[in-house]
Amino acid sequence: MEKEQPSIYLSGCSLHLVHIAAKKAAECLPPVDDILVDIYYYFNKSDKRKSEFKEMQELCDLEQRRMIKHVCTRWLSIGRYGFNYIK
Predict the structure, then answer these.
(1) CA–CA separation, 50 vs 39, rounded Å?
(2) 47: left (phi over 0), alpha (psi -120 to 50) or beta
(3) What are phi and psi for residue 75, nearest 5 degrees?
(4) What is the helix (H) or strand (E) element at residue 67, kind and residue range?
(5) According to the model, what pLDDT value does residue 65 have?
(6) How far apart are CA 24 and CA 72, in angstroms?
(7) pTM greater than 0.90
(8) Collapsing DSSP states into helix, strand and coil, what is residue 64?
């Protein structure tokens, strides 16, 4: 291909490059458990944020739920989307 078209640029598999970039980015993030606890405290420490969370559930026509804090011994608190809510 380079003989036929000398100005061509071959960069390799684009999906492989995206995978490498995502892997490197994920290595910079804190553990998922820490993120879940941070999210919990972000809402738990502010009545305004809790109220906005409730309003968002109403706006999206979702069942009203509240967050529970993830702890290592509460193995059921990690669900399909990272953390579950309880009523």
Answers:
(1) 12
(2) alpha
(3) -65, -20
(4) strand 66-67
(5) 85
(6) 26
(7) no
(8) coil
